[in-house]
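To illustrate the input format used throughout this study, we show a single complete record. The first block contains the structure-token representation of the backbone; no residue identities are included at this stage. The design step must infer an amino acid for every position from geometry alone.
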């Protein structure tokens, strides 16, 4: 740009940090406002597979692809699909070292490791920790955000990268996330190869889906010899907040959750029974599939703030990073701010809509009474190069 704009980014997730990094690569400063007190203030979740056309493309634009490689785990790319009797109905093996076209690989990486990589790549002080955004407004000619301590920050560009319940989104859209009808309960098993060898054998080297009775147990290899488990159940939204799954009482919470899977194989039930630490309920929400907004001067969104979807397309983090990279590139290559924002939003809207539609379809299909068969057909179509149903 002909003059350096003042850029404020709300949210230090993967999308916001990718944007800040790409801007930095092109000599453009930005400030990221994050509510967490530090980079280690809370758990960052499980593993991600980096798609070559989105997440890895973003890392390339960020100049971090080579640093990413030793942190990633291509050996954890296996996928297994099981019934509730633990019979494997479909399997995609993990790639062998050096096997296949590198451009087609989707190496795994823990979300924390990826976030730390992005944080290390930014100048000190770029992220303002403990700066919670309370609200945002159009301002007096420039958008502004108000922090929880009452301070107001004006900017030439305000980017909402602050997730599902974005405080920036109301400036451009009246849409709110809607409950999908499905809730997760997160569990974690540590030292699985030594303490839980049967679980390690069942899950394999990657992600395992066990589907039946309109429910699911989804287990995922993480780094550090851990397995993260997501028990998926259809339930009213209030169920996840009702106290039935109380993090302060893990023994009772496990029993209540196991009661929902009464006739499932004991090896699968062990994913819950042997889990370490508290169980955490997470209702799954999504924005409208076709969510978009009219151009608001000096304001835009990326990632979940722009296109929150369920996790069943495996696209959320990858798209957030691609959003951040493409927005950064647009700002670096256009002299006019509004031209840059149009250049970013125009392809982002249909790209996000396609992923959100696939995610919504997969949620409906996988948790259908015949979900196991439908999921198998979906994965076969994907691996054979066909269209998923």
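Output of the design step:
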């Amino acid at each position: 740009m002909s003059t350096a704009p003042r850029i404020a980014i709300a949210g230090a997730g993967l999308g916001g940090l990718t944007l800040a990094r790409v801007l930095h690569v092109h000599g453009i400063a930005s400030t990221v406002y994050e509510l967490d007190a530090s980079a280690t203030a809370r758990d960052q979740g499980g593993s991600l597979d980096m798609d070559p056309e989105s997440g890895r493309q973003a890392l390339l634009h960020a100049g971090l692809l080579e640093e990413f490689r030793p942190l990633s785990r291509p050996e954890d790319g296996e996928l297994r699909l099981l019934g509730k009797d633990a019979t494997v109905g479909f399997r995609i093996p993990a790639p062998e070292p050096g096997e296949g076209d590198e451009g087609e690989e989707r190496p795994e990486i823990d979300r924390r490791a990826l976030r730390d990589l992005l944080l290390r790549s930014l100048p000190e002080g770029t992220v303002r920790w403990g700066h919670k955004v309370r609200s945002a407004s159009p301002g007096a000619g420039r958008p502004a955000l108000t922090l929880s301590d009452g301070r107001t920050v004006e900017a030439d560009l305000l980017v909402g990268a602050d997730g599902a319940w974005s405080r920036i989104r109301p400036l451009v859209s009246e849409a709110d996330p809607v409950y999908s009808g499905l809730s997760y309960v997160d569990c974690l098993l540590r030292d699985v190869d030594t303490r839980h060898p049967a679980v390690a054998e069942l899950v394999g080297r990657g992600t395992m889906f066990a589907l039946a009775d309109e429910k699911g147990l989804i287990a995922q290899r993480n780094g550090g010899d851990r397995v993260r488990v997501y028990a998926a159940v259809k339930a009213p939204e209030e169920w996840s907040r009702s106290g039935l799954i109380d993090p302060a009482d893990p023994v009772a919470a496990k029993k209540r959750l196991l009661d929902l899977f009464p006739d499932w194989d004991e090896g699968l039930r062990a994913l819950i029974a042997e889990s370490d630490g508290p169980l955490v309920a997470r209702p799954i929400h999504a924005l409208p599939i076709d969510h978009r907004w009219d151009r608001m001067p000096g304001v835009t969104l990326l990632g979940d703030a722009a296109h929150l979807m369920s996790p069943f397309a495996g696209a959320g983090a990858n798209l957030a990073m691609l959003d951040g990279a493409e927005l950064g590139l647009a700002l670096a290559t256009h002299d006019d701010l509004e031209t840059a924002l149009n250049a970013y939003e125009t392809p982002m809207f249909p790209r996000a809509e396609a992923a959100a539609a696939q995610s919504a379809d997969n949620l409906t299909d996988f948790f259908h009474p015949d979900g196991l068969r439908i999921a198998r057909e979906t994965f076969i179509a994907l691996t054979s190069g066909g269209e998923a149903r």
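Structural context for interpreting the output: The CA atoms of residues 50 and 268 lie 27 Å apart. The domain at 7-72+107-176+288-368 is CATH 3.50.50.60 (FAD/NAD(P)-binding domain).
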